[in-house]
Amino acid sequence: MKNKLGRSVFILAFCIALIIIFSISFFSSQKKAYNADPSGLLKEFAVQTTYFTIDPREETTLAYSTGSRIHVPPNAFVDKSGTLIEDEVVITYREMHDQIDFLTFGIPFEYDSAGSKFILESAGMIEIRAYTGEEEVYLNTDAELRIQMISKYDETNYNMYYFNEDEENWEYSGPNDIGSLEPEPIIEFVETVHYNIKSEEELEMEIASKLSVPEEPKKPETADEGKYHFSIDNPEGDYTELRTFTNITWEISDKNEAFDPSSFFTTWYDIRINKINDADYEITLVNASETQKYICYPVLVGNASDEELQKFEEQYEQYKQELIARKDEIEQRVKQNLALQAEWEAELYKQAFKKAKVEEEQLKRWEEQNLILQQATAVSAVVSRSFSVDRMGVWNCDRPLPFPSNTPIKVRLLTSTGEPLYFPIVFQMQKGRNNVASYSSSGDFYLIGVSKLKPNLIFAVNMEGELMICRPDKFINLQDNSVQDLVMEKYPGEIKTDEELVNALAFN
Known about the structure:
The protein has 508 residues and is α+β, with helices and mostly antiparallel strands. Helix content is 24%, strand content 31%. The strands form 6 sheets. Strands 1, 5, 6, 7, 8, 11, 12 and 22 form an 8-stranded antiparallel sheet that branches. Strands 14, 15, 16, 17, 18, 19 and 20 form a 7-stranded mixed sheet that branches. A 5-stranded antiparallel sheet has the order 2-3-10-21-13, with no helix packed on it.
């Protein structure tokens, strides 16, 4: 008994010394180590750190390989004296999402709250730190990083916890926001400005069509004595330009296909004159039994008087002035419309620019979200969890759970030949629980919370870097009221890859 005790003390002291040595070297940032892995076996398979180099004066969004995003505000970092960092900053970041990640990261999952102990179950954990040169830098007191971490768990009862490395305990921080990984649909840009831009020629034609054309006064030709003529007293019709001359008669045009001279000997009750074009008129003759229409034109019988010619010249001059005024009016309106269209084109350009920018931003956001979805799908993530970080270090999205059993079982660990085994830390994983429990020895035994409802796996790493495992089938006949012996077997294969470690710690 004395020799056994002496051996136990020696082994325990040796293990403690190794833990201390390992604790100094486990993290490159010289943080304390929480994984009793004297050989460094587990550390070899820890999730690798990703390095981002940023300009701390500018706002930055960093993309992690899983689809997570880190949003960094400008002027977010200070040195240990509180001085704002303006030089290049290197941000280190990694995520842990499953039991193997947690195990190889080497941090405890025990949580003390109001005197009660719990074990945290994680929906995702991150480690984030920042450096300038060799010096670690810190977050400005009024700055926060916004983390959009992908997660395999969509339940709402997970909160954020920060790991206090000085006290080696988790601190409750607050809730997190759950978001969908599906990209937002691209919404078609609704154009609110609609203008019909016309050329200068089109504007001239349109404006001219809306302005009346002055009536050109006509000076009748002299009557042709070889053709039919007739005179009308006060006829109804549009021929006001002819009222300048008194000795006007109407000459039948050769354009009439059939003219009946007997019309001159017929009594007509209604006579109307309508202008057809610049030269011709249509005369409509109506009585009780018939209606006849002829094309004719006004002619002058004899010579016009000087007074009539003077009046005609005045009318023609007025006509030319009206034409000039009309042309000026068209030019002025075209100029005004072109100026207005220039304003319209500026608005249309702004709208087109805005549309292009909105569509570009939407497409960029959609592509970014689709990339996140693809990356997250590759690691079986189903949601994103967003939270703010006010300190650099380790953050865990967790929910506290009771230990696997409210009444721990006293377990003595043995080799297959019955020799006792002693480890600084023994690990336990339960199937269906996303965490890793760890236990230190209590003398010759370990107090382990074993759930009989879920498969349990207990394992440890010995000094030689060998994985010692107690498989789920060993727990079937355990009793609660006495010290139980559990045989741990050395994993037969050599573990050189992540996949081999996963297979070694599989429940089946």
